[in-house]
Write the structure tokens for this entry.
Amino acid sequence: MTTIVGRVPNSVLPQAEWNEKPDTFRMKTLRRYKIENADYFIVVVTHNRRDILLRDIDLFWACWKSVKPYAWVIMPDHFHVMISTRDTNISTLMHNFKITYSRNFRNKFGPGRVWQNRFWDHIIRDQQDLNNHLNYIHYNPAKHGMVTDPFLYEHSSLQKYAEMGYYSRSWGVSEEMKFDGDFGE
């Protein structure tokens, strides 16, 4: 039995699977369901989890074109949003957002990568699924230790939902909340 120690030379690997950078592997094409009028929970993370999203919150909102999130939390290095796609493909929608934001961010703050490749999505299946994801979004700043009271986090839709009567003022404050499921983190 032969054991290979170290990195396998590029000349041994099939060239079709490597891009122009010798130490990076080309990503496979990810196929997503195309469902019109679907509600999605989306997670997008900055490149190397750099804390850049709160530098200019108006820039974040200006980059949403045809569809705007109806629930959100914007953390320093990632964001979670809920979006209804209407007749728009989720991949196209997120591609357009990320390209627009990246271009505008680099124009204002200088060169460099802004986002990790891809994004994480979950199609909302029913009211309970929607409620779980809304709760996760709104509790996220407390989960990450940024606040002890989720109502004190400025870049969240929690206040909006509380004003509409969906949350009491004591929600998420008295005890740590736990969430079952995969939320893309």
Summary: Residues 49 and 78 are 7 Å apart (CA to CA).
